[in-house]
Amino acid sequence: MTYDVVIATKNRPGALKLSIPLILNQNRPPEKLIIIDCSDDHRFICSTVRDIVNNSGVKLVIEHAKPNLPGQRNIGLKHVESSIVIFPDDDSLWWPGVAEAILRIYQRDKKSEIGGVCATWATEPPPQANLSDSRKYRMTRTDRIKQKIGGWRHRFEDFVCPNPMYVHGRTQWSHLAIPRWLSEENAVQIEYMNGLCMTFRTEVIRKHGFDADLGSHVGWAPCEDVAASFAVTQELPVVRACDAMVCHYTFPSLRSEGFRAGFATQLNRAYVLCRYAASGSPARKALRRFTYYKRIQYSLGCHSKYGRERLYGHVKAMSATKAFLNLPVDALRDSYLKTSQQFLSDSHA
User: Fold this and answer.
1) Residue of 312, 80, 135, 336 whose CA lies nearest to 223
2) 303-322, pLDDT tens digit by residue?
3) What is the pTM of this model?
């Protein structure tokens, strides 16, 4: 069994210098590495990637595209030839054995009962990562604090105000068959896969693709990984390989001004959930509560200009959320695109 890797990137050569060597040095390297780039200096990215991949024996495809994360992944998917495709972020740092742990699950899944396999979040980069060559791409003290408190915050939210995406993901479990051998491979069923390192059976993700509408006005696309997962879990479960350790070395920089970040995150969350969760479902009820919880959380960050703008964007998107909750599913897309055009039609961040 072989796999191809698709990486969507923008203006982050330092991240690629860290992540790509760790992918190429796996004991089971990819057949093909596909880079879909929307950087300002595409030639420099091409030169950087070719220098890294040189003499590795891995086929390389580099293509330029408009800034749109799910759209870039769809372009990359057209170049995939292997039966398995992996979509890491450009700053996903693979520990040794990631590919082996993921492929082992697919190989044992003879009946094709699993749609996707996700890696597990490691809090530390692998020792093989050549961090000394990436001075501009370092984990800051803030990054370390966020990593340490992130798990606690998610557990707190799950108890006090559950994320509606998790709520919907769990409601899907009742109609999805899980192979009995899954625990033997140190894997668990999950609600959805995050963008840290998603993998799919190629035929499955080609059937659904990524929702390019989600990134059409901001380039990056909050909840695009959730949308892809929910499309798959309508028929097949997604799981996490606990032996496949991947580190998000630094947290993403502020990719947009605060208003667009706050607005797009809330708008996309509401749109994706209302698209897949039925009216009156526990997930839709959880969305209302979670929306107000995020408003309180963002209020605590109003000491900065970015924080104030993010809160303002979130509040503006709350009216669209209420509208989505009352719309039939077939009217959601037009409403989403109209609202996005109205508030997010400026040039990409």
Assistant:
1) 336
2) 999 999 999 999 999 988 89
3) 0.90
Q: HEC profile for the chain? A: CCEEEEEEECCCHHHHHHHHHHHHCCCCCCCEEEEEECCCCHHHHHHHHHHHHCCCCCEEEEEECCCCHHHHHHHHHHCCCCCEEEEECCCEEECCCHHHHHHHHHHHCCCCCCCEEEEEEECCCCCCCCHHHCCCCCCCHHHHHHHHHHHHHHHHHHHHCCCHHHHHHHHHHHHCCCCCCHHHHCEEEECCCCCCEEEEEHHHHHHHCCCHHHHCCCCCCCCHHHHHHHHHCCCCCEEEEEEEEEEECCCCCCCCCHHHHHHHHHHHHHHHHHHHCCCCCHHHHHHHHHHHHHHHHHHCCCCCHHHHHHHHHHHHHHHHHHHHHCCCHHHHHHHHHHHHHHHHCCCCC
Q: What is the pLDDT of residue 27?
A: 95
Q: Using CA atoms, how far apart are residues 103 and 201, in angstroms rounded to an integer?
A: 10
Q: What are residue 308's DSSP bridge partners? A: none
Q: Give the class (CATH, top level) of 3-138+164-248.
A: alpha beta
**pLDDT value at position 348?**
39
**Amino acid in position 256:** S
